[in-house]
Every structure is written in C-alpha cells, then in structure tokens.
C-alpha cells in the first residue's frame, strides 16, 4: 500500500458510520478528539473537531466547546454551567472581490460564523444575527444556464436566465424562491463593460434588517450552444433570506444562551448536569452529542456531530430503454459515453467520464486533499 493511500485512510477514519443499510448510508458521525482518563479543562475547536467550520486557506475558525473542571472514571459528571459552547464572526473577503475587485453593496467582504457545526453568515457582522450560507463558489467554479433554464440553488431559491442576447452580450436574470419571483435584472456583459456591471446582485430587507446582500453572481461569458444561447456564471454567492436572531435565554438542546452580542455568542448547560455514563450517547444541542466508551474502568469519550448523507434509491429504467453496447464496461452505454476507455476500477459520472476511486479533485493521485474533500462533504460543507 503506498503512502498516499495510507494518508487517505487515516484521515477518513475521523468519519464513522452511525447506521447503514445494504443499499445506502443514512448518516455519519463526525467526531472530535477522544478524551481519556483524568482530564482537566477540555477544549475542542476546529483543530481537533472536524465537524466545526474551518477555513483551511486562512486558518480561521470560530467555534469552541469546553468543559471546565476535572473528569475521570470516579466522577463522570459535567457539572451545571461547566459545559460551554461559544462562537464569533470572522471577516471573509468575497471571492468576486478577490478576483475582480467588485464591491457588493459597497463592501469587499462579509462575516462568517460557525454555528452548531454549520456555516452561517453573520448579518452586518453581528454574532447574534445569523443567516444560513447556501451557495459559495470558490476559485474557478462555474455554472452554465441555457435560455429559460432554472437552476435550483437550494433552500427553495432558483436562478433563471429568462433571455440571453448573444449579439448584445446581455442576460435577463430572474431570482425566485418557492416559485415566487424575488427580483429580475438585465446584466450587460458586452466587451468593455466593467466587472462591476457584469455582476448581478440582489439585496433584501430581512426581519427588520435593511439591504442585506442575499445573492450575487458574475457573468463570465455568453455563447451559442447546440440548440440555444448559453450564459456562464461564476463567483455565485447566496444566503437564506431568513435571519436567526439569537437572544439570551434561548435554549438549544441542554444548552442555554448566556451571552448574545454583536461580538460573541455563548451557551452553557445552565439547567443541570450531564452524566457521561458507560456506553451512552448524550445529546448536547442540534446534531451534537457526546459518545462514551463501553468501559467501566476508564472514562473515554468524544463529541460528534451526526450528518445525513444518504438518499432515496433511484427508480430503475424501464426494460429496453437503455442501449446495449458498453465497450469499456463502465455502466454507461456507448451511445451516451464521452469516454469509451475508462480503466477498470474507476467510477464514472453520468457522461461516462472516469476517475479513480478516492480521487476527489481529479488530479490522478490519492492525497490528504482528497480526504479533506470527503470529510467536508460528509459535514455538508461542500459537494462531491
């Protein structure tokens, strides 16, 4: 076994399957560092708890889970007010600003905040006003839309290229949620137009907060496809148009908010102690739990977050509707296959383009980068 495969296996071990079926995995647990024997003033953050949000490029993280005092086999009780979860916002530059210098409502960036092991936007930089981050394109991520095509962005949102004027380089966009149009605008991407004007942005007044930047994208190109005109967009960014207002006294699981300000949010177990019994799973808040080993002689436990990654089993096609010939045996018939020379042992997409198992970024190697992508996908931080 080569070193690259060893690294991949070791890193992926941080993700464990909770339940599974013969067909599909229903959920996984993403755990933090295991604590054992006598431990004092425990701390988990994104460096030792993979479920917490972490910006690898800038080394930024916001969430922290702590247990004050000592625990051991003789005393497995987390006292009242001893368990604390805290988080705060951190500034992030918009990808579109980094690439083109484009400002969104006059700002070059926004504030991200990890909340219950998920990524949120701190509205106007306020730690206690959070909106779920739904889409954030990075690097050279692209999406192409044909005329009239609606792109499901998640959270009920859809972006539609209503009309594409190839000669004039103009695109009429429509942004909707749950089938209701929120906004529409014509964007000019013709030669000589500034990058700022090539950007479609939408703001909304949300829950008493005015002019919240909800969506933006950059028109990278318009061109003629086989049957229709095509627009290619990059640097897509979308948050939900619902704000979570966190107040002192709010409860989440066994935790209660004790600090809620523009700078910081903190929760503790104010209503009672938590017993880490042998072979138990104790709920903390949201999808976060403590798991304790089945060992009466030693206290050994870790926090974990449960994430669902499965889906419904697809309905098989009707007999006689799939072409018979499949030269390379990759499961994609030749009539639909863009690569009829897929090596054995590779997985393929619906177009028959192959990639070796575990090679998530398609560079032909199995490295720790691939393992990180798998972990982030399991934590719903990115898609595979």
Q: Could you say which structural class the secondary elements and strand pairing correspond to?
A: mainly beta
CATH class of the largest domain: Mainly Beta
The CATH topology of the largest domain:
Tick-borne Encephalitis virus Glycoprotein, domain 1
Basic shape? globular
Give the count of helical stretches.
3
Helical content (DSSP H or I, runs of 4+): under 10%
Biggest sheet details: 9 strands, antiparallel
Rounded to the nearest angstrom, the radius of gyration is 24 Å
TL;DR of this structure?
The protein is mainly beta. The protein is built from three helices and 31 strands.
Task: Compile the SSE list and pairings.
Blueprint: H1 3-12, E1 15-17, E2 27-31, E3 35-36, E4 39-45, E5 54-55, E6 60-61, E7 64-71, E8 77-78, E9 83-87, E10 90-93, H2 95-100, E11 109-115, E12 118-122, E13 129-136, E14 142-146, E15 150-154, E16 157-165, E17 170-177, E18 180-188, E19 199-206, E20 209-224, E21 229-239, E22 244-245, E23 251-252, E24 255-260, E25 265-268, E26 274-275, E27 281-285, E28 288-292, E29 300-308, E30 346-348, E31 354-356, H3 368-378
Antiparallel strand pairs: 1-2, 2-29, 3-29, 4-7, 5-6, 7-9, 8-26, 9-25, 10-11, 11-12, 12-13, 13-21, 13-22, 14-21, 15-16, 16-17, 17-18, 19-20, 20-21, 23-24, 24-25, 27-28, 28-29, 30-31
Helix pairs in contact: 1-3
